Amino acid sequence: MKKVKGSLHHLKRSKSPKFWPISRKEAVWSVKPRAGPHPLHRAIPLGIVIRDMLGYANNMREARKILGQRLIEVDGRVVTDYKFPVGLMDVIHIKPSDEYFRVVPDRVRLLRLVKINSDESSLKILRIEKKTMVKGGNIQLTFHDGRNYLLRIKNPFEPEEDIYSTFDSVLYNLNDKEIVDHYPFKEGYISVVIDGSNVGVIGKIKNIRQIFKKVKAQVEIEDAEGGITRTILGYVLIVGKDKPTITLG
Q: What gap in Å lies between CA 111 and CA 103, rounded to an integer?
């Protein structure tokens, strides 16, 4: 996905990401997301989500009023900023109607909302972007949404707890703030393409061929109809062992 350029504080509609569901000729300016858990080229401001994707407001003033009344939660936390960047796998809760939506990859729009039930709303798939050793020999995992998780190691010389690698995925409980399950980036696991020309494709990983950098490794994915999609490892998110753990469509 091509990165969007613009000034520090403003963004013209004509320069906004193509997947945003807004009219480019209706006005000059759009909402520029604040710095947050997702980058500009893979995020949608919460105000646009409320106004244009969910249809709860006719204009940004109404969307800001809804947020100011503390009626919207993202990943279990009340958000009042209309510029807050919403991105991949985030869970949005509309408190008055008690509706839940997850941000998932889409073959046309890159990102879209899918309605989920309340039982699933506390779960989120996170991809491990970075591992760092911290004080005491413990390991800090950094996920794709900027969230950090401290993995406590009893014996740094034999770190039995460290079963994670970069680009693996975990099933995370937003309420308990704990890892529920772990999905390594291996052949046979179910994945979804989250970027590139094949975004939105869901299937089983058939082959991983690494030549140079891991992020550029070639991955073959077989969908339910037997079709093969080829992409790079950096564009793939593992979502389960035999089937997607969370709702994707």
A: 6
